[in-house]
TrEMBL record:
This is Probable beta-carotene 15,15'-dioxygenase. It catalyses: all-trans-beta-carotene + O2 = 2 all-trans-retinal. Belongs to the Brp/Blh beta-carotene diooxygenase family. It is an enzyme of class 1 (oxidoreductase). It comes from the Bacteria. The keyword Protein transport does not apply.
Amino acid sequence: MTKLRYTQIYIGTLLIFALLVAANFSLPEQYLIIGLAAAVTILGLPHGALDFAVAKSLNLVHSVKSGIFFISAYTTIAVLSILFWLGFPASALVLFLCVSIFHFSADWRTSMPKYAGMCLAAIVICGPAVIYSDVVTSLFTALLLSVDAANLVMQGMRLLFFATLAVFLYFLAKLVMSRKAKGKWRLAEWICLIMSSLVLTPLLHFSLYFCLLHSPKHLHDVSAKLNIDISRAVLLSIPFVLATMFIALGVYYGVSQYRGGLSINTVILRWVFIGLFGLTMSHMILISVWHRHEKAA
């Protein structure tokens, strides 16, 4: 399956949900949170589960000793990141947003300049703060932020959205006028991402982007680097996905027993995002090394 097909699947799915929103159809928050957790597990985790194979291809792992060191370092970074969030949630959230913008911008590294990719990634992440400010604030407070801190982050996200939107629209106008636009589907994807960030609810918007665009495209790139087809790449990722799920279930069971009166939805949401933060920090460092290696090659 080509990257174009992922774009087409994303746009088709997005249009279906947009029609449902226009028809005033909405799912209960509980179903959205459970759906997010399931989607991230099934569609999202495999794209990071191949990090060990990527490390081997970069010659970071070349023996049992180096393999143990890599796994230990990867796990330590993830655990320290989670502990950092628990101690300094507002700072960790800002760091997570910045890291995510940098990481997601690589999705378009071959189709637009770096500055435009950073702008589009910022739009994707910050767009929900424009219209769904109350929803985003409640999400942030569920992630251990105070209301004041959540509102401050929200203001920053809105400012960043409009600033990066202006720059990205300049890039689009320049691209169209130069008549160098490569493919209508690419342009459609970019426009749909902007619209999705404003129209769909934050959890649905993030789930569709992360699971239908970012993860499959990354998996496609990794399979190309490892010189294997995607089905083989998915099979290689299964043991790591199962191990992550096992650990996540253990954490979930532990915190659910001592959730201090919090709803189960809040517990799931909190640990999905905090867990993603931990895994993203380790994953992003490795992928950054890989992309630098690509440029140097």
